[in-house]
Write a structure and sequence with these properties.
Layout lengths: L1 E4 L7 H5 L11 E3 L5 E7 L2 E10 L2 E7 L3 H6 L1 H4 L14 H9 L11 H10 L5 H15 L1 E2 L9 E2 L3 H6 L2 H7 L3 H12 L1 H5 L4 H9 L6 H11 L13 H10 L5 H8 L6 H10 L20
Antiparallel strand pairs: 1-5, 2-3, 3-4, 4-5, 6-7
Helix pairs in contact: 4-15, 5-9, 5-12, 6-8, 11-12, 13-14
GO cellular component, one term: protein-DNA complex
GO molecular function: alkylated DNA binding; DNA-3-methyladenine glycosylase activity; DNA-7-methylguanine glycosylase activity
Protein name: 3-methyladenine DNA glycosylase
Length: 297
């Protein structure tokens, strides 16, 4: 199945899709040499594969599998067609140039909560490469092969029931300790309710009512699943320091970050994304956070 869509205004397709990529070897996300982006999804109609490319300002979507129709129907929303940027105003000079360069930034939404929740939980309190390795292992072990002519090795995230049944020794082999494994399994029991949440506020309430899910994880999920432009990743290991240094020349903590982002209320996540795109970082002092391989415990 195919669909063509011409967005209103500038759109950076790869920038809109990049938040859904979990490391360079993500089995659910791939960028091929022809510039196309491939992603898999567990849609309400079943597994599907989506290929997105751009030519002369027109987005071309191709999809395969039982979920193909759903993927093409929601393609504009995935790329930020519903993202209202009208209320966003640059309040710091450091953002003026990056906002012009990335005028095509859009906060899209997948409409799929578990797809965003599982990798977000895996990323709790560990370095990225450890979480992404666990994500790859679990998808290769429990995911389905991607429908259609997808690049080799692409997989579709398993159903909620599968997450509930993964044995403890496989979580251990993946590198996820009992706390994160239990958090994902518990969320999977409530997957239907989470997927049916009508607003970002309702989804935030439901997520944070689950053990093991706090402000950071909820924000990471809502950014991707419902395209919330105001969901700030409070508690992130790096973000507050990046925001503080870019806007003031000094690092700060989470309360300091929220004060600096207050002028962008309603678009604080959008502002944070633009700040990270400036590339401004405080000089490194001290060793990096060590990788903790839970498979060795």
């Amino acid at each position: 199945m195919e669909r063509r869509w011409t967005p209103e205004g500038p759109l950076d397709v790869e920038l809109a899709l990049s938040p859904h990529r979990r490391g360079s070897g993500d089995p659910a996300w791939r960028r091929t040499l022809d510039g196309a982006v491939w992603r898999t999804c567990r849609t309400p109609d079943g597994p599907g594969t989506l290929r997105v490319s751009v030519a002369v300002g027109t987005v071309a979507g191709q999809a395969w599998g039982p979920g193909a129709g759903w993927l093409l129907e929601t393609l504009p929303a995935l790329l930020g067609a519903d993202d209202d940027v009208s209320g966003f105003r640059v309040e710091h000079e450091v953002l003026a140039d990056v906002a012009r360069k990335h005028a095509g930034l859009r906060i899209g939404r997948t409409g799929r909560v578990m797809e965003a929740l599982v990798p977000a939980v895996l990323e709790q309190k560990v370095v990225g490469r450890e979480a992404w390795r666990a994500w790859r292992w679990l998808l290769h072990r429990y995911g389905e092969p991607a429908p259609g002519p997808a690049p080799d090795g692409m997989r579709v995230i398993p159903e909620a029931e599968v997450w509930r049944q993964i044995p403890s020794w496989h979580w251990h082999r993946a590198g996820a300790e009992a706390v994160r494994a239990r958090t994902i399994a518990t969320a999977a029991w409530h997957a239907a309710k989470l997927e049916a949440a009508g607003t970002t506020e309702e989804l935030d309430r439901l997520l944070r009512a689950l053990p093991g899910i706090g402000v950071w994880t909820s924000a990471e999920v809502r950014q991707r699943a419902v395209g919330d432009p105001d969901a700030v990743s409070v508690g992130d290991f790096h973000l507050a320091k990046i925001v503080g240094y870019a806007l003031t020349g000094e690092t700060t903590d989470d309360p300091g970050m929220l004060r600096l982002l207050e002028p962008y209320r309603g678009h604080r996540h959008r502002a944070a994304v633009l700040i990270t795109l400036t590339g401004l970082r405080a000089p490194a002092r001290g060793p990096r956070m060590p990788a903790r391989d839970y498979r060795s415990f």
